Each structure stands twice: as structure tokens, then as C-alpha cells.
Amino acid sequence: MQLSEQQRQAVADWLAKGASLSDVQRNLKADFGLNLTYIDVRLLVLEIGATVQDKPEPKPPRVEPPPAAPADPDDPYADEALEDEPQRPAADGLPGASSVSLSLDRLVVPGAMVSGSVTFSDGVKARWLIDQYGRFGLEPETPGYRPSEADLQAFQTNLRTELRRHGYA
Predict the structure, then answer these.
(1) Between 140 and which of 12, 115, 128, 145 could a Cys-Cys bridge form, CB atoms 3.0 to 4.6 Å apart?
(2) Is 153 helix (H, G, I), strand (E, B) or coil?
């Protein structure tokens, strides 16, 4: 299909302003009544020598760590901290919530979208995964093991934070 010089100039202007090929296709139909397929628009852009500008990728929002829970003034051991152990806030401020550490696998388990391992506060380790359908699976090393409610909530909070940090949210 042959376009007039005015139509070609309009396409070049749209592309210079950052329009995508889909935008150009819509504008040609709306402004000039031309119904072109996507590939026709792509070929037209190549023919007139214009370029489609890449849109900058949006930066993921920065996730701030949750604030640490205030120290209990009645706790005689509140000031003592193990230097080798990272301090973790209690899960959602629950009393008695303990530390749960987790990691994401660099190589995802076959059949999963994301997978990793977790160590609960009592030292029991488990493998976890989320499959293509969004189903969650947890396989502890100790058969029949059930983590405490506080550990499950801490795991859920930590998992949500890690997934967001790695761009899964």
C-alpha cells in the first residue's frame, strides 16, 4: 500500500515522539482511515527509514526492610547479641516469633517457577517451591515435620520480601 508524503511524515513524527508500532497502527487507522496489519506497519517503518525508540525499563521499587522490634526493658539479655548471627525482626511483631532463614535457588527445580530452601527456628531444613500454577510446596528433611505458626508466618513474610527483591512481585 502506498502512503502519501504527509502520511509518511506523520508516521515519522509519531515514532520520534516515542510511539510504539501498535500506536502507529492505531493512529493510521484513526487519522487516515488506513487499516494496516502489524507487519505492514513494521515494514512501512523500515521502508521510510524511521526507528522505533525503546522504552526505558521501569526500575523496581526499593523495598525497605521492616523496622526492628523495640527491645524489651525487662529482658536481662536484650543487650547481648551474637556477633556472627544476623539480627532478624520478629515476624509481624508477633511475640515469640523466631528467626527463619530462606534462600532462592539459582537453578530452579524442574517444574517450578521459583524454588529454594528454608531453615526454621528449630534448625529443621526444608525445600520449598512454587509451580507454574502458583501452587506452593514444602518438603521438610524430617518426614511429618510441621513448623510452628510463628515460623510459618515468619517464612511467609521473608518469602514475600525475597520474591519482591528478586523481581517476582
Answers:
(1) 145
(2) helix
Please give the distance of CA 66 from its chain centroid, rounded to a whole number: 18
The rounded distance, in Å, linking the Cα atoms of 88 and 154 is 10
pTM above 0.85, yes or no: no
Instruction: In whole angstroms, give the CA distance from residue 68 to residue 83.
Output: 17
**For the chain, what's the residue count?**
169
What is d(CA 119, CA 100) in angstroms, rounded to the nearest whole number? 6
Main-chain dihedrals φ then ψ at residue 71, nearest 5 degrees: -70, 145
CB-CB contact of 113 with 166 (8 Å): no
134: alpha, beta or left, given left = phi > 0 and alpha = psi -120 to 50? left
Q: Are strands 112-119 and 101-104 parallel, antiparallel or unpaired?
A: antiparallel
Q: Read out DSSP for 2-16? A: ---HHHHHHHHHHHH
Look up residue 124 and give its three cell numbers.
529443621
Mean pLDDT of 10-37: 88
